[in-house]
Design a protein that fits this description.
171 residues, alpha+beta, 3-stranded mixed β-sheet, 43% helix
Length: 171
Amino acid sequence: MQEGTGYLTSYFLHLTSRCKGMVINMKTLYFECFSGIAGDMTVAALLDAGGDKDGLFSLLESLNIDGFDLSLTKVDRCGISANFFDVKLHSENNHNHRGLTEINEIIKNSKLSENAKRMAANIFLCLAEAEGKVHNLPINEIRFHEIGATDSIIDIISVAYLIDNLNVKRI
């Protein structure tokens, strides 16, 4: 991904409370993904929406994954200010091909809440099912390439953490 493109999702992401004549405390998350969605852009947008940066960075640094640095910077593109979230890998060797079992162990042993663990595990299960259909393999034989890489795991775990942290009830 080109640097500086993380602001786009922030512009289209909105957290709102919806009501019909009364105040309720249900947060709805709207994604407008007319041209796709990227994990780092989603993380940046959720942080722009009020997600806990310090809690997120603490969680990610405690994961049983090595070889990365995190950065969060403010960018301004065409008059729109937003966060830019980046996972910098120490080497190209961090593009491991992990299976669903390995990824689920990372999630299980993390400090995520139970709700965020379920969310992250379900995201990977959906991806494994799709990969299995494409490659005609059972999900336990799938070896993720791009999404098994360190940066992709961090993006998905971050999104699960931030959605839970923001107390989103509906997407």
